[in-house]
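Lab meeting, item 3. Inverse folding demo.
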């Protein structure tokens, strides 16, 4: 009827992403937004979808499906697939003790090529193909890669569960503990095994009430914030507290489209 807007997708509301480890046992440079944007240029989601998932997904640039009520293209930042732009942002976004050598390798403060650990869920062939794709793209930007394959159960136990007990550089109780997926702040609680990028985890975007999964995954004390994401540039908790009870639908829309615009720039995943 008039005035009713309908959203639909043949793929549902599940969102799958590449996780970045912001905890103390991940690559420290992932805490740089420019480095995360470099990875967005590098790890082309269209290739993942069309060539690996046989077209069975829709690309998005924030934690909300394109067909959802809070996806506003005018506020979304996108990143074209470009190894050159990725290299430029890796060069400028890493700290001063990183840089490219004459062989186009990204060199770290120890004088060695940067090597990242990519973890995949490899119970089927698709996971292994994704791992090979990530290796190829990261190597194109001068980064060495070690791929670790795991069953889903081992993925959870070794990389998603985290605790201060796994951190040899921290003693005492954590400042907080909201469960095995978020056993404390990222400088205190870490996973059993170190990792940098992880594939194989998804979540419902809950498009009509997106504040719920955002609180779980992207707030400091979120029960599923296993990768330890933090930001001082946006009050995510405040936005999701305010949005459901805003004075009007228009006000809710403003809050959420602004938040999803920020997430598209900040690239926490």
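The presenter then showed the designed sequence:
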């Amino acid at each position: 009827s008039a005035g009713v807007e309908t959203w639909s997708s043949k793929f549902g509301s599940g969102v799958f992403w590449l996780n970045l480890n912001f905890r103390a046992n991940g690559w420290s440079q992932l805490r740089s937004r420019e480095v995360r944007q470099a990875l967005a240029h590098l790890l082309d989601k269209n290739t993942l979808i069309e060539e690996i998932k046989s077209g069975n997904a829709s690309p998005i640039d924030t934690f909300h499906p394109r067909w959802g009520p809070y996806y506003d293209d005018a506020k979304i930042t996108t990143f074209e697939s470009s190894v050159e732009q990725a290299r430029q942002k890796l060069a400028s976004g890493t700290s001063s003790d990183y840089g490219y050598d004459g062989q186009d390798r990204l060199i770290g403060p120890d004088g060695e090529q940067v090597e990242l650990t990519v973890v995949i869920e490899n119970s089927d062939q698709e996971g292994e193909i994704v791992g090979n794709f990530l290796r190829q793209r990261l190597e194109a930007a001068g980064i060495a890669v070690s791929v670790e394959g795991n069953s889903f159960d081992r993925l959870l136990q070794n990389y998603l569960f985290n605790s201060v007990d796994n951190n040899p550089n921290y003693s005492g109780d954590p400042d907080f503990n909201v469960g095995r997926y978020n056993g404390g702040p990222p400088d205190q609680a870490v996973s059993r095994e170190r990792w940098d990028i992880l594939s194989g985890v998804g979540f419902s975007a809950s498009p009509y009430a997106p504040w719920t999964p955002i609180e779980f995954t992207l707030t400091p004390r979120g029960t599923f914030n296993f990768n330890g994401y933090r930001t001082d540039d946006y009050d995510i908790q405040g936005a999701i507290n305010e949005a459901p009870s805003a004075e009007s639908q228009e006000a809710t829309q403003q809050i959420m489209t602004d938040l999803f615009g920020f997430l598209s720039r900040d690239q926490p995943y």
